[in-house]
Please model this.
Amino acid sequence: MAKPLLTAQLSKSGYVPPHYIRPISDRPTLLAADRSDPSIPLIDFEGFDGPDRPKVIKEIGLACQTDGFFQVKNHGVPKSVIEDMVCVAREFFKLPESERLKNYSDDPTKSTRLSTSFNIKKEKVSNWRDYLRLHCYPLEDFVPEWPSNPPAFKDSVSKYSTSARNLVLKLLQAMSESLGLDKDYIAKALGKQGQHMAINYYPQCPQPELTYGLPGHTDPNALTVLLQDEVPGLQVMRNGRWVAVNPIPDTFVVNIGDQIQVLSNGRYKSVLHRAVVNNKVERISIPTFYCPSQDAVIAPAEELIDKQHPAVYRNFTYGEYYQSFWDQGLHKENCLELFSVRE
Model:
């Protein structure tokens, strides 16, 4: 196999190679992102297990309907666990290239792999990122294949993955209840469930106006919980404009994935978002993706279907959906339309 070319190798080249350059009509327009717009909702999760539960559920439901994104503070994930996760992520991407490449694969079926861009076998224009993809649940099935270097990697990532899963399960309860469903409805609809993580590394980019870290897309999974370092880069589509979501210490960004949009019969929105890069500093982001099992049948909840609200989507398995998402890549913003009910 030819030696793969990671994006990190290009960061000090002084220019963006042609296969990273977006068409003029599809460039980040960095100055156009709105930084004056109030950011996405910030929800205090501390009261979820106490008397403030109805208030928290109402706020989450409203955010899911209007923004598809929200931030949570007082979420219960220890600060030390978060700090160790970011630290070990940075350490991994500072390893010598030869050490990092021990984890490289362009086979998307591998449950642990280092890669670059998004789908390098199919895409015509590459994205300015490298990433380490990990499956995280059940932990005992996947930890043995994770990198052993840095030495603290397996321990730090295990603790973070467990804490993130505990938070996600509570968020799914809140979303179910906010829809008027049993609190375990969404969790049950996802089947055996899966949990993946991407440790994204966005190197400095000499010409950030020409390319993306990731172009606009929605997430194909059910729910994403994002840990960002202190460097901005995430932008969310809000009222037809791109809005910068600047990092707030000790918070997570939560976004609805396509599967919850289907389960909610379109009431909750899986919203376009993208990652831009900069020419000054590298950026780390760590999304945890919570997914249905491959054989889970996804369909609008029957309780949310009536004459005024007919089913918006047909039934499908998550495996079928994810294959469509992977095949079309990020050159199309959303593949939900492929599964909508046609009149």
